[in-house]
Each structure stands twice: as structure tokens, then as C-alpha cells.
Amino acid sequence: MFKKIRKRKIYSRMIMTVLIAMLLAGSVLAAGTEAENPKYIFFLIGDGMSSSQATLAEYYNQFENLEEVNHDYEEYGESFIDLKAEEHSDRLMMHRLDHAGSTRTTGSFTLVPGSAQTATALATGVKTDRDTIALDLNDKPLKSVLIAAKDKGMATGLVSTARITHATPASFGSNVPDRGMENEIAVQYLENEIDYLVGGGARHFLPGNNDNSKREDNRNLFEEFADKGYQVFESSDQTAAFRDYTPQAGDQVIYTPTMSHVSYEIDRDNKLVPSIAEMTAKGIELLKQDNEGFFMMIEGGRIDHAAHDNDVATTIHDTLAFDDAVKTAYKFYLEHPNETLIIVAGDHETGGLGLNSSEGMEYDYFMDLAPIREVKASIEEGFEYTGDREQLYTDLKEDFGIAELTEREKELLENAMDLQDAKGRGADVDEINGYWPQATWISPVQSTIAHITSRRSRIGWTSSAHTGQIIPIRTHGVGAARYTGSMDNTDVAKITAELLEVELN
Ligand SMILES: [Zn+2]
């Protein structure tokens, strides 16, 4: 009898234990699910940004902030900067996020990808052909994580410092067979009703009879957006109005301060064009009012262009500006830590950027960031050689801090001017100066100046195009731990879709 009672007690205790364990497991699971579903998603993409662009920007940031207190800089060089890094917390925000992983970037048929391809992979989880925007290899339209978030009821935003119709934002908000179909992409944004559209590229929204327009029809998309109830700010004339505007719940916005891309950060006139961080902040102000949460893609689109130009200072300043947008997202995360996910990705590397281009070991593993500080304009927008050599040398001194050239530098530059005088700005400097990467849209003289500045800093470039590196991804917040380890770029979209509990393709 006694034994039996005892046994029953043991049984009931076991049952209780099991029940409690089940309850605990249940609540843990519930909490797990809750914690895995972000309500607010920032998907930040540095176009052309790999670890070398981000590393260089971070070291430059430290250099700028440290030199005043760093009396021994001449003696210790960059290793001294490293030692002081933590103390001054000049690390980029993207490098202070909790989780890190890496992504392969190959396309369907090529090891070295294009932006349409990589953006399609990041947005839809499918690899495709080089210039295709969110279509698979059989031309089937693919649903992006942004459109899936929209279908779920979330508010959506696209921000870019490139044209808003450029490949990266386009892959999140449209489906076309060729990235050049920017007029069609603009129409699809209208049809898909992306709530917040901010970036360059007014020329694809203006009617064809406007001199600045690139449209072949006479549709005025700004008017059509306005008819749908959008707040429309169609040029830098409305920048002040955009800044004064206080978003109300349910508002939709389109703002395009420039005809083509937004200026490089180094050339940007803040009165006319807001920073990418400001564009992001206004987007948050609007989209956070949606009860279902939001999905916002923010592209630092011109890091890529600067790297195509092999323009070291411009690459750095655009990367730092992009990092400020990461900071803006992070500030929002601090207010909503249990509901926010931040993803900071690159799409591919551009330029084959190398940190130290010494031609021999005699330079002793050294970079010199000081010459970069003297640069006051981008090579592309801030400088053009028009045949006046005296003017060129004045500009070099005033805008690029190059007062005296070495014999070799002078020879390279004079060669480039001779070539440009003879064959025009479309000539390829490679013809005269040996292997010397040059983006097709910059002149021999512009390219030569870019390389002089880079070499003075011991920064090397192996390409004027993209390269095939595996690149880092950083994440923070709800679900962020999922994006770790060695991934493919398509995994990023797949994981994001799982966190959103949506089906893609
Ligand atoms: Zn590119």
C-alpha cells in the first residue's frame, strides 16, 4: 500500500515535471518565434562595397579623428592608429553590429557579377543573367522580399544615392528583362505603390517633352503619383519643402532631388540634396507609423561608381555617408530593440581595391592616408580637362592638394593630356601608360589623376569593373543571428523571407 502511494506520487510528480517542461518549452518556442519575426527591417546595401572599401573608410575615419592627438604618427604609421581605435571608437557602425557572415556573389553563368544580378539574388533569392532585374532565366517574374513584405501589409521604402530606377532598388520593386529599362521600372514603382521612393533619377518620371526627360512617352509620372495621393517632391527646388514636410500615417512619398544620380558625397551641396542618412531618417518618420511595420531598402549606390573610377577619396566619403545611414537605422533599433532587424550587405566588390600598392617591400607595409585628406572633389564631377594645361595644374593644387608632381607623375599626366588632345576624352589611357584601369565614362586625364592620388596613398586598383570576391554581410537585432557563416547571396533573401514568414518563388 505504502509502496503504491509512493509510486503514484512519483508518477504524478513525473507528470507535473513533464507538464511544466512542456509549458516552458512552449513559452520558449513562443518567445523564440516572436523574437525571430522582425517588424521593422532595414536592408542596407553598399553597392560595390566589400571589406576593402569598408576597411579603408574606417581607417580613414580613424586617421581624420586621431591625427590631432597622435603626435607620434610619423614614427608609428598606421599601426599606431589601430592601437588607439577602440579608445576613440572610430569604428564604422557597420563593424559594430552583432553578427557577421559572408556571401558568394557569382551569377548564373559568370564568376564576376553585375549589379542587376546581385540585387536580384539579394532581393528574390534566385540567381539570374547579368542585366536582368528580378526575372529568372526563363523570364518568369520573381517576387522580392520587399514586395512580399508589402503583400503582408507592411509599409515599404526604397532609398538610393543612385537613380532610384537603378539596378539595385529596381530588383526590389520591379521586374524587367534589362536594367536599362528605367522608364518602365519607374512605371512599375507607380503600379506597385512603394510607399517611400527617394533617390536620384527625376528624368525617368518627367514627360518626354521635357528637355531633361529620358522618357519616350509623354506620361508625367509625377502627376500620376500625385493623382494616387502621393506627396511629390520632384526636384531640388522642393528640397526645403521635403525637409519641412511632416509625414502623416498612411502618406506616400516620392522625392527625386536630381535628374540622374545624386551627387557624390564629396561634391554634395547639402542645401540642394540631403544625405543618404537624412533620406533614411525621413523614411523612418513616415514608415514607422504603419501598424504592420516596414521594410526599407537603402542603397549607397555611388560607392560603386567611385570605385569604377578608381577614385579613392570619393569611394571613402560615399562609404562613410552610407555608414551614417547605418547609424540612423541603429538609432531606431535602440528605440525598438525587440522588433528591429538591420542587414548591411554589399552586392559585389568594385575596382579590385588593395590596401597598399607598394611595388616592392621597400615601403615596409605602409599606407599613407594624408594625401586623401587634401582631395576636395570627385574626379568625375569635380574635374574636367578642357585643353587648358595651366588651369589643370591650378585645379590639381586647389582641389586635389597636388602642388608638386614627381617626374614620373608629370610624364604620366602630360601623356594623358597629349592623348586626350589627340583623340578626345573617350580615349583609353591604357594605350600610353601601360596597364591602367579606366572606367569608360571618365577621361584619360581624370583616370590619371585618380591613379596619382591612389598611388600617393599606396592604394592599388586592379580593375575599372567589378571583381568576384566573397564579401561580408553584417546584421543586428531580431533574427540577425541567422545571417552568419558562409552563405550565398541568394541565402540572404531566403532567410529574410523565412523571418517574414512569406513565400518568395
Ligand atoms: Zn558597378
From TrEMBL:
UniProt-annotated binding residues for Zn(2+): 47, 304, 308, 347-348, 466
Keyword Magnesium: yes
Required co-factors: Zn(2+); Mg(2+)
Domain of life: Bacteria
Pfam families in UniProt: Alk_phosphatase
Active-site residue numbers: 115 (phosphoserine intermediate)
InterPro entries cross-referenced by the UniProt entry: Alkaline_phosphatase, Alkaline_phosphatase_core_sf, Ap_crown
Cofactor note: Binds 2 Zn(2+) ions.
SUPFAM superfamilies the UniProt entry points to: Alkaline phosphatase-like
GO MF terms, alphabetically ordered: alkaline phosphatase activity; metal ion binding
Keyword DNA damage appears in the UniProt entry: no
Gene3D superfamilies: Alkaline phosphatase, crown domain (1.10.1200.140), Alkaline Phosphatase, subunit A (3.40.720.10)
Keywords noted in UniProt: Magnesium, Metal-binding, Phosphoprotein, Signal, Zinc
Protein residues bound to Mg(2+): 47, 166, 168, 299
Signal peptide residues on this chain, from the entry's feature table: 1-30
Family: Belongs to the alkaline phosphatase family.
Protein name in the entry: Alkaline phosphatase
Natural source organism: Halanaerobium congolense
Organism lineage: Bacteria, Bacillati, Bacillota, Clostridia, Halanaerobiales
